[in-house]
Each structure stands twice: as structure tokens, then as C-alpha cells.
């Protein structure tokens, strides 16, 4: 149980294009999902907290107009990197907390974004 | 959330117990100790968490000192697949804790044959 998937697992795109990453909780509902970013040899950094049916809460320094988050259902959150640039190349990881369930978060396998 | 301190890296022989320490001397009474690990190029994996009592599950044991200022994650019989970065995180738990996790540097555990 408590499986979180991400799609795609890897994406390469040209500079200036937009990329959408999906995060799904497969066997539980998640009112809250989180998006993290991890650069090589660094730890995970929280980008934003996504709440179903409401606007995401972004961490300081994360541009909300560049990283669009939509959490339209209890099992799906999407992160869209708009007008991607090479400096956006990173490992993007989502996590989900079961609604009314154990107080922990379950992570997706991550999406590696490479912007050329 | 309380800050944690972990060794940067550790080695362990395959089949032996791996004991990973974590200091959290500023932990508050309502803060839990969580452990996650991240295998290379994968998302973090939840291992275990606790408040003040020792905890055990199928993956590991968590030993928390009586003053709660430090803890140890124990992998009883480490395998090569346990090679990963292990993160000790302290944060407020409880029913309304859809709170973010703040990841520090973690401990890079290398299990060797």
C-alpha cells in the first residue's frame, strides 16, 4: 500500500518549452501533496505544498508563475514548469500524505528533467 | 522544526547491523523523529518514526534516548540494497501535521560485501 507514482520518470525538453509532471497516489487519497526539487549531490528542497481544491503554498524564492501546481483531485497533483531553462534541470519529487491516515508522507520515484 | 545533526557518511559490512546516529538536542516535546532513506536517483522512502518510545517495524528499529536529544536507527542485518542516504528529520507530528519535511544532509551509508 501507500504507493505514489510520477509521470514521466524522465523528460528532456528544449529551452522555452513547458513540461508537466504528474503525481498520483495510487491506493490512497491525499488532501495534501508536496513538491520537492533536488539538484545533484544536494538534499531535497521543498518547493510548494499542494492542497486539493485550493491554491498551492509556495516556499520563499519559488516563482508561482513559473511552477504551476494544480491539485484537482484527491489522487492527482500536477507540476508544470513553464518556459523551462537549463537552470531548471533537476530531479523533481512529489510526496503525498494520506487523508485521515498515518502521519507520514510517501514519496514518488521522481522525475528527472533536463532542459537543453 | 528542530535541527538535526548526522554523520556525513558511514560504512557497514554486509550482514552486520548498521547503527545510524542522529542528534536533535533542541527537540521540543511535541516533535517526532522521522527517518527516511533515498537510494540513488529514487524518491525518499519512509522507514520509521517515533515520539519517545522505541519503535520497530519490518525495516528497522528506532532507539530514542530518554532525554530525546538523540536517536539511533538500526538496520539489523544490512544488505547491499540498504546503501542509501539516510535522513533523520524532526518535526511536529499529530493529526494536523500535513507539514512539510525539512531534509538536511543525511548520512550516506555504504554497505560493503
Q: Label the structural class of chain B.
A: mainly beta
Q: Mean of residue pLDDT of chain B? A: 91
- How many individual β-strands of chain A? 11
| Strand coverage percent of chain A | over 45%
Any low-confidence stretches of chain B, pLDDT <50, length ≥5?
Answer: none
Say how many strands of chain B there are: 9
Order of helices and strands of chain A: EEEEEEEEEEE
Which consecutive residue ranges of chain A, at least 5 long each, have pLDDT under 50?
A: none
Structural summary, described in words:
The complex is a heterodimer of chains A (116) and B (113). Chain A has strands at 4-7, 10-13, 19-25, 32-38, 45-51, 57-58, 67-73, 76-81, 90-97, 106-107, 111-115. Chain A is mainly β. In chain A, a hairpin with an 8-residue loop joins β9 (90-97) and β10 (106-107). In chain A, the strands form 2 sheets. In chain A, strands 2, 4, 5, 6, 9, 10 and 11 form a 7-stranded mixed sheet that branches. A 4-stranded antiparallel sheet of chain A has the order 1-3-8-7, with no helix packed on it. The model of chain A has no long low-confidence stretch (mean pLDDT 92). In chain A, 34% of the residues are buried. Chain A has no helices and 11 strands. Chain B has strands at 9-13, 18-23, 31-38, 45-50, 55-56, 61-64, 70-75, 84-92, 107-112. Chain B is 0% helix and 46% strand. In chain B, the strands form 2 sheets. In chain B, strands 1-9-8-3-4 form a 5-stranded mixed sheet, with no helix packed on it. By secondary structure, chain B is an all-beta fold. Chain B is built from no helices and 9 strands. In chain B, β5 (55-56) and β6 form a beta hairpin. The chains are: A mainly beta (116), B mainly beta (113). Chains A and B meet through β4, β5, β9 and β10 of A and β3 and β4 of B.
Amino acid at each position: 500500500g501507500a504507493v505514489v507514482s510520477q509521470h514521466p520518470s524522465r523528460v528532456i525538453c528544449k529551452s522555452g518549452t513547458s513540461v508537466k509532471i504528474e503525481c498520483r497516489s495510487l491506493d490512497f487519497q491525499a488532501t495534501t501533496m508536496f513538491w520537492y526539487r533536488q539538484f545533484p549531490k544536494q538534499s531535497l528542497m521543498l518547493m510548494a505544498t499542494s492542497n486539493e481544491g485550493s491554491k498551492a503554498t509556495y516556499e520563499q524564492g519559488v516563482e508561482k508563475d513559473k511552477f504551476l501546481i494544480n491539485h484537482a483531485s484527491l489522487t492527482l497533483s500536477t507540476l508544470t514548469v513553464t518556459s523551462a531553462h537549463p537552470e531548471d534541470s533537476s530531479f523533481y519529487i512529489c510526496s503525498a500524505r494520506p487523508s485521515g491516515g498515518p502521519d507520514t508522507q510517501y514519496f514518488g520515484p521522481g522525475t528527472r528533467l533536463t532542459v537543453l | 522544526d528542530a535541527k538535526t545533526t548526522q554523520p556525513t557518511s558511514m560504512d557497514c559490512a554486509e550482514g552486520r547491523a548498521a547503527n545510524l546516529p542522529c542528534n536533535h538536542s533542541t527537540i521540543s516535546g511535541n516533535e517526532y523523529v522521522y527517518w527516511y532513506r533515498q537510494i540513488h536517483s529514487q524518491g525518499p522512502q519512509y522507514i520509521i518514526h517515533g515520539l519517545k518510545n522505541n519503535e520497530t517495524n519490518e525495516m528497522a528499529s528506532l532507539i530514542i534516548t530518554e532525554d530525546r536529544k538523540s536517536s539511533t536507527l538500526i538496520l539489523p542485518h544490512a544488505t547491499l540494497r540498504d546503501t542509501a542516504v539516510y535522513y533523520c528529520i524532526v518535526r511536529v507530528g499529530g493529526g494536523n501535521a500535513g507539514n512539510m519535511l525539512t531534509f538536511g544532509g543525511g548520512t550516506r551509508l555504504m554497505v560493503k560485501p
